[in-house]
Amino acid sequence: MSAIFAVFEILGSLGVFLFGMKVMSEGVQKVAGERLRSIMGSMTKNRFYGVMTGLLVTTIVQSSSATTVMVVSFVNAQLLRLRQAIGVIMGANLGTTTTFWIISYLGLSAKFSLTSIALPSIGLGLPMLFFNRARIRDSGETLIGFGLLFLGLDLLKNNVPDVKANPDAFAFVQQLTGFGFGSIILFLIFGILLTVMVQSSSVAGAITLALASKGWIDFPTAAAIILGENIGTTITAVLASLGANTHAKRAAAAHLIFNLTGVLWILLVFNYFIGIVDSIMPGDINDASHLPEHLALFHSMFNFCNICLLINFVPQISKLVQKLLPVNQAKESEERFPYLSGKIIHTGELNIAEAQNEVARMAELTEEMFRGFIEVYDNPDKDMGDLVKKLKNLEEISDQYDIDLTDYLIRCSTDQLSVHGAVQVTAMMRIVTELEDICDWSYRLVLLAQRKYRKKRKLPSKTRQEIREYSEQVLDFIQFYRQKLKGPLSAKDMEIAKEMEANIGKSLSSLRRKAVKRIQESGEIKAEMLYIDILSHFEKIGNHAFNIFQALEHRAM
Predict the structure, then answer these.
(1) Using CA atoms, how far apart are residues 265 and 302, in angstroms rounded to an integer?
(2) Which domains, from first to last, does the chain contain?
(3) Contact 157, 289 (CB under 8 A)
(4) What are the strands, taking DSSP E only, across 115-225?
(5) For residue range 323-351, what is the model confidence (pLDDT) as tens digits?
(6) Helix axes 219-232, 201-213, angle to 10 degrees
(7) What dihedral angle (degrees, nearest 10) is formed by the CA atoms of 258, 259, 264, 270?
(8) What is the DSSP string of 371-417?
(9) Cα distance between residue 69 and residue 350, in whole Å
(10) CA distance 513 to 506
């Protein structure tokens, strides 16, 4: 019974550690989410910048899984190219080693009391949660997460039994280590399974370091488990890519290939490599209290050497995954506008970038549909059946965009977001609705143009020219909101938007008066009523376009 109780104590310790890491990571993302997204966009110019980006972001959020899942999402949304993504993934592998150093020097050090950090950190962070300013509250959440993380480590350190008190159990472990190189493979597989089960290389690493510090496993065994954890951590990115496009699957595959390649070459020089680590790191390797520092150095040196060896082969890795996962051209042509990945890993603020990019794609769709109407209207003597079918398909895609993006944004809103992030999500939800309405009105215009030609409703050449000029005003408005969706909105931009909407309204009133006058003079009611319907649809699109600017203004506040 006592053994079962001890197991639950260890699991509870891991739970506190994992929850603390989650709270701390979410707090950091709230405080620095906007900067992290800009870092991802500005520091991935080449593979070397990508490595630095992955290292920096993972060190900040303390989760390589969060970074690699974010990379998969960014590739899925085409915010990153595959070669850039591979560089970021390499850096994320190195960045996750900082967790090992923190655990080794602060978490499992006999000379250091974790409660001297954990409790004051929680005590300082708790009152900050009650401040009105969002940044102070988010900083308080980060401090509480930091404290809980170290409290979990302290519990883990105290609850993992010492090997001297359990000689029978240790005898079983010794039997597993008696197969030479076979034991290395055995514990490598154990590391993979452990990481897949807990879905966190940091938690798996904490378990490994705790076992090593208590004398349950020796240096080679623990190093083999860490190698397995490097493979196991790729599973999270693979799972995240399952509902994504081919490009995202390639990024996840590149992550797996990079880590597998590293493990394969180090197994060839395993004994020499751990000997080099032992010669560099002070402390007796036979003393369990020194093992955590040795393992932290092993983890960092392995990932650093792997980057140095493979960074020049990024183009080859990219070509390999492209060959292994070819793009289905037929499917790509049917799904011309790729949808968001169906899975959201809880990376808080970092999910917003993918949503922003998809909103911009939907805005591109609105312009294409309106231009399609203009082409149909301007070519009464051509067979436009194929174009109309294409526009019908685009209208259906816009409906699917509305469903997918709204669902994605709702799931984003249930995650931990900063006040600014929550405002952004709310604004995007409104923008998505307005964009879908613009697509609907554009397709209705196409149907009106078809009806005009089918019913042979003829308008004077001057009237047709008025429609073309009016459509140019609407098209300019569409292009303007497309431009502003990608950047900041200034007060001057808002004034321009108001002026554009007012001009569209004035043009509508003027053209309607002219139409009524023509009806009175010629008695041609049906053609003119069709003309007025087209003008009304233009006005509707202008209203929805201005609503987008109001949402953007709200987002900027």
Answers:
(1) 10
(2) 2-324 (no CATH), 348-556 (1.20.58.220)
(3) no
(4) none
(5) 888 866 545 444 444 445 444 445 555 66
(6) 170
(7) 130
(8) HHHHHHHH-TTS--HHHHHHHHHHHHHHHHHHHHHHHHHHHHHTS--
(9) 10
(10) 11
Is residue 20 within 8 A of residue 151, CB to CB? The reply is yes
**Residues across the chain:** 557
* Beta carbons of 31 and 142 less than 8 angstroms apart: yes
Contact 262, 310 (CB under 8 A): yes
What pLDDT does residue 453 have? 66
Full-prediction pTM beyond 0.70?
no
CA distance 343 to 382: 44
- What is the tens place of the pLDDT at every residue in 8-58? 777 787 777 777 767 776 776 666 656 666 666 555 566 777 788 888 777
What is d(CA 247, CA 78) in angstroms, rounded to the nearest whole number? 8
In 3-state terms, the chain is what percent helix, strand and coil (to 5)? Answer: 85, 0, 15
Closest-CA residue to 184 (of 264, 293, 121): 264
CA–CA dist 235, 68 (Å, integer): 10
Q: What is the dihedral of CA 218, 220, 224, 226, to 10 degrees?
A: 70
Residue 28 and residue 347: Cα distance in Å, rounded? 10
Tracing tokens 């209705």 back to the chain, one arrives at 444
Instruction: Name the average pLDDT for the chain.
Output: 78
Each residue of 526-540: pLDDT tens digit?
667 777 888 888 889
Quote the Cα angle for 431-437-438, to 5°: 90
Q: How far is CA 478 from the centre of its chain?
A: 28
**Structural contact between residues 534 and 448, judged by C-beta atoms closer than 8 angstroms:** yes
CA 169 to chain centre: 43
Kindly provide the b/e burial profile for residues 25-48, where b requires at least 16 CB atoms within 10 angstroms of the residue's own CB.
bbbbbbbbbbebbebbeebbeebe
Give the pLDDT score at 333.
44
